[in-house]
Design a protein that fits this description.
Layout (H helix, E strand, L loop, with lengths): L36 H9 L4 H13 L3 E4 L6 H11 L6 E4 L6 H5 E3 L1 H10 L8 H10 L5 E3 L1 H5 L8 E5 L8 H11 L1 E3 L1 H4 L7 E5 L7 E5 L2 E3 L5 E6 L7 H5 L2 E4 L5 H17 L9 H15 L6 H12 L9 H5 L11
């Protein structure tokens, strides 16, 4: 049956259609708070194992970053949101890493060009001395400085802020070593403010929080009072230098076995699967078959948990049957690019 298909492919335009209910983990446009709702769902549905719980607590006690290695889709990033939700640590500060990322990107950004344009446009009042003029020009510098995710995480706080450094293995070879001093000292300087500390000892700068919160910086220095809870994720694409590894606690996120996989499914789709009034209810036997097939496919393919969730969502909503050819397409190997035939 193809009644569920919105796009018919028959070249006949029509507009009397509506999108059906979205998956719980893709609630675009329906969040009460768009900046937080999706993150809260990730934290609520994540199912940690005992070893992961212990390593999180060890990282909190020892004030050490937690380096998590694992295949894509095993929940490395979601662990950060689960900790933030349960311990009420607020918004997760997210720092995605690329090969072009440098340490300063995580600490702060200074828009020097916009600042220079403003200074050039300012007219010097005749009654101001050189010292007063310099102080006036310095007073607006705070409008051009924004703390990055790492810099925001190091701000003074009574409880640790939470920072997710995503895919650290994609970084330039120097970034892990550049992070060493920050992880050890828990402080850094904003050079542009240090140079002006006599003229303007205290400024308020924007942080990396989506709510655009500002924070007071004294004499250009940021000193953390509570070391942040830092999670660094890695897909295992490279090795890290021993000095960097020595400063981190390491956790390998394993692929879930069947029992754990069923818990993940229940957290995301429990109502749809268990509702007896749902005419498209997935039988225990059919669910077992789909899960077993996924685990078997995983032996020779790189598959993510959310691929299985996509399949189950389509089945439980009555879009496809358990043997539909679309399932094979939804479970394509993430580690291999399919060649054109």
């Amino acid at each position: 049956m193809n009644d569920w298909q919105i796009f018919k492919g028959n070249s006949e335009p029509y507009d009397n259609w509506e999108l059906p209910e979205s998956p719980k983990w893709r609630p675009f446009g329906k969040e009460i708070n768009p900046n937080q709702s999706r993150s809260e769902i990730r934290g609520e549905t994540f199912q940690p194992r005992e070893e992961e719980i212990k390593m999180v607590n060890a990282a909190l006690y020892l004030r050490r970053p937690l380096l998590i290695t694992g295949k894509p889709g095993t929940g490395k990033s979601s662990l950060a949101y689960a900790v933030a939700r349960e311990l009420m640590l607020g918004e997760v500060l997210y720092w995605p890493i690329t090969s072009r990322t440098i340490l300063k990107d995580g600490l702060y950004n200074y828009d020097a060009i916009a600042r220079l344009q403003e200074v050039k446009q300012q007219q010097k009042p005749s009654n101001l001395s050189l010292k007063q003029e310099k102080k006036q020009q310095a007073s607006s510098i705070e409008d051009y400085i924004t703390l990055g995710p790492l810099g925001t995480a190091l701000l003074p706080s009574t409880k640790p802020r939470i920072l997710l450094i995503d895919e650290i293995d994609k970084s330039d070879i120097d970034l892990p070593n550049d992070l060493l001093n920050i992880f050890e000292e828990g402080r850094f300087e904003i050079e542009e403010l240090v140079r002006l500390k006599k003229e303007i000892p205290t400024v308020n700068v924007r942080t990396a929080y989506t709510a655009d919160i500002s924070h007071e910086i004294k004499e250009g220095r940021v000193n953390c009072t509570t070391f942040p809870f830092v999670i660094l994720t890695s897909n295992g694409e490279r090795d890290f230098p021993p000095p960097f590894l020595r400063r981190c606690l390491r956790l390998t996120m394993k692929e879930p076995d069947k029992e754990h996989l069923v818990k993940i499914i229940a957290a995301h789709l429990g109502k749809e699967i268990a509702d007896p009034d749902n005419s498209t209810k997935l039988t225990n036997e059919a669910l077992d078959t789909l899960v077993d097939n996924f685990i078997k496919e995983r032996e020779t393919k790189t598959l993510a948990n959310d691929q299985l969730l996509n399949v189950l969502f389509m089945v439980t909503k009555g879009r496809i049957e358990t043997k539909d050819a679309l399932i094979k397409q939804l479970l394509q190997d993430l580690g291999q690019v399919e060649e054109d035939e």
